[in-house]
Amino acid sequence: MQISAKNAMAMAMASVEMEGFTVSGEDRELMQRVVNGEISATEAMQQILQEARRANDLD
C-alpha cells in the first residue's frame, strides 16, 4: 500500500507533535512546497538551517 506525499507529510507532522515539538505555520508551508514539487527536501532543509542560524545570531 502506497501513501500519498500529502498523507506522508501529515503523518510526519503528527509524529513530531506527538514528541512534544511544535510545527510552525511557516514550517508547514515549507513542507507543502516540497510536497507540491516547488522545492526539494534538501532546499527545505537549507532554508530551515538558515533560519535557525539567523535566530541564534539574534540571541
Taking all Cα atoms into account, the compactness measure Rg is 13 Å
Q: Helix and strand string, N-terminal first?
A: HHH
Distance from first to last alpha carbon: 46 Å
Q: Report the principal-axis shape.
A: flat
Beta-strand residue percentage = under 5%
Helix content: over 70%
Question: Which spans of ≥5 residues are poorly predicted at pLDDT below 50?
Answer: none
Keywords:
single chain, 59 residues, mainly alpha, 3 helices, 73% helix, flat
Ordered list of secondary-structure elements with their pairings:
Layout: H1 5-18, H2 25-35, H3 41-58
Walk me through this protein's architecture:
With 59 residues, the chain is an all-alpha fold. It has a domain at 24-59. Helices cover 73% and strands 0% of the residues. It contains three helices and no strands. The longest helix has 18 residues, at 41-58. The relative contact order is 0.10.
Task: Give a nutshell description of this structure.
By secondary structure, this protein is mainly alpha-helical. The chain contains 3 helices and no strands. Helix 1 packs antiparallel against helix 2 (25-35).
